[in-house]
Amino acid sequence: MKILVLFLIPICFSIAQAQNSNPTGYVKKGLKFKTVEIARGDIEFASKELFVFEFINTSKTPVIIDNVQTSCGCTTAEKPMGEIKKRGKGKISVSYDTYRVGPFTKTITVTSNVGLPVVLTISGNVLPEKH
Question: What is this structure's pTM?
Answer without folding.
Answer: 0.77
